[in-house]
Structure formats: C-alpha cells, structure tokens
Amino acid sequence: MIDATGHDRFATQDYARLAAAGMQTARDGLRWHRIEERPGVYEFGSLERQVRAARAAGVQVVWDLLHYGTPDHVDLFAPDFPDVFARFARAAALALAPETEGPLWLCPVNEISFLSWGGGEVGYLNPFVRGQGGVLKAQLVRAVIRAMDAVREVCPQARFLHAEPLLNIMAHPGQPTEAEAARREHEAQFEALDMLAGRLRPELGGAERYLDVIGLNFYPYNQWWHHDQPESRELVPYGHPAYRPLRDLLAAVHARYGRPLLLAETGTEDEERPAWFRMVARETLAAQAASVPVHGVCLYPVVNHPGWDDDRHCHNGLWDYPDVRGHREVYRPLLEEVQAARALLERLEPGQPLPGATAPIPVSSIL
C-alpha cells in the first residue's frame, strides 16, 4: 500500500505537505517484509526516506511495526513467533531511536482483534487461516508483550500505541432474546487489551504496564445490530436514534482502562468526508470537556489509496494520488473542516462547555 500510494517515493513532499497544513503527528508503517528479507538480517534502507522526510518536516511519527504484512519466512502460528517479532522490534527501535527527537513512538501490532479475525478466523488477511482466530489473538498478544520488553531494554523512554477497533454492538429491538449474545459480541472487542493488561488469559504474561496509550479505530460502519450470521447484520448509521454517540464510547473505554486515548483511525469516503470529520471533531471535544483524556484525532488515510479488496481508486483521503513529481491535489472541503477544527481549538479556553475542551487536541494524520 505504501508503494501503491507513492509514499515511499514522495515521502519528502508528503511530510512537508503535512507540516504546511499544521499536522504535526502522523502514523506511518515499517515494511517488515522489505526489512527482514532473510531471517535475522535487518536492512532499513526501505525506511530511510520516510524517516528523514519526517525529521526534516518536524513531524512526529508513530511507527507501525506490524500492519498486517509479514516476511514470507515468518509463521504467525509458530511457537517462536513472539521471539522473532521481538527481535525485529528491538532492531527497529535501535534504528529509529537515533533519528527521533523526543520519545520513540511505536504501534507494535495494528488491530490485534481485526488481524486475528481476518487472518485467523475467516481467511481474509495474511496468513489466510480459518477457525483459529482465538489462537492467533493469543499469539499476537504474546508477541506484543515480548516486543515491548525488547524495545524497553534498548530504549527505556519508548512509548506505545495499541490501536484497536471501537465498536458498538446491540440487540435489535425486535429481537430482545439476542441481548446476551449482543453483549458478548460487544465485549469481545476488548479481549486483546484485556489480555495485554493481564485481566484475561494471565498465562500469556500480560500486566497493566503493557497498556500505554489506547488507540481506537472508528468508522461509519462500527455500529450494528447483532446477528448470528455476520454477513446478515444491519448497520446502525450515524443519525439513527439507536446510534451511540462517540463521546459515550470514548468515556466507556476510559472508565474501563484509565489510560490516555487516541482516535487512531477515522474517516470515510467521497462527499461524506467533511461531515464525518466535523462530527468526530466535535464528539472528541465533548469527550474532552467531560474529562476523558483523548489526546488526538488521526485522519485515515491522509492520501487516497487503492481499495484493499479491489484496487479501486478510494476517494477517502485529504490528498489524491501523486503526479510524476509528487504533487497531490487536495480535497478542499475536507481541508476546510480540518482548518475549522484547528481554528475552533485555538479559540477555546480550558474548561469551556462544548464548543470547548479541557486541552487542545492535536489534529493528526495517518499515512
């Protein structure tokens, strides 16, 4: 995906563009399959342009170590996978820390829950296995714990983001007997974080110290009526009377874990982009006004990309595909909403009711 968007070739322009738009933080990814082509041999040349571009633009980066892709020689189900991943994480920290001002920020595994479901339960993602989602989830949790320990040994000041889907799953009013099943499905979204914290499956090695900043990925399709057959479930759209406000979902996660929060991904496609961002920004402000520590909103994606499933041109970013020189056309309605959110933040005084916030929210981006 990084290659398809041209970000690897035009990282300098991309990061300069972010900085010029006032976006001072980004999520970006390491391509593990390019870095460890041979077992135990780490070459970070494929990352060099991104690292230098971010540093030159003064943009802070949260680096994803595993965002679905792995080298062909790595088996996610192998007994030694946690150690293999930990060695990679350690090597990445040693490579990135000298190039980083301030603490090094890492997201060890993006969306353990979704990767476990897509890769281990329904065969949709690498490693394309079915019926082993729970096994893969536990394996990924072990790997994240080992990786965090390995990074902290060489970079004690490193900070970690755990990005997980934020969902709301309800029993349909016409199916009250589904209430318990809906509750269990809703609670399942927290299994990975509960495992990391040692609250669930303590034999995996989890503890509260493995929860740093909790990232929440939130999209228009993240609320639905429970159905035994996932393909038949009905989405609950924004504006529906049963739609649960984002501020309430954020407050519930903070009450559960007591950790700083970040909206680690949010966005939508086409002409709905500006209205969605406006809603998310205001809901985040409302959460902050209620003393929920949400420290950022991360727009996904910041550049349009080919569809994961069909390579279609997804118009979901702030900027479009690059031309031969790296120029990208901006989607101005979304840019205007981002600018409006920043202007609102600059006018706010701490403690104001909505429109207001307890502290400014950095408007961030994701690459």
TrEMBL record:
<protein>
    <recommendedName>
        <fullName>Beta-glucosidase</fullName>
    </recommendedName>
</protein>
<dbReference type="InterPro" id="IPR017853">
    <property type="entry name" value="GH"/>
</dbReference>
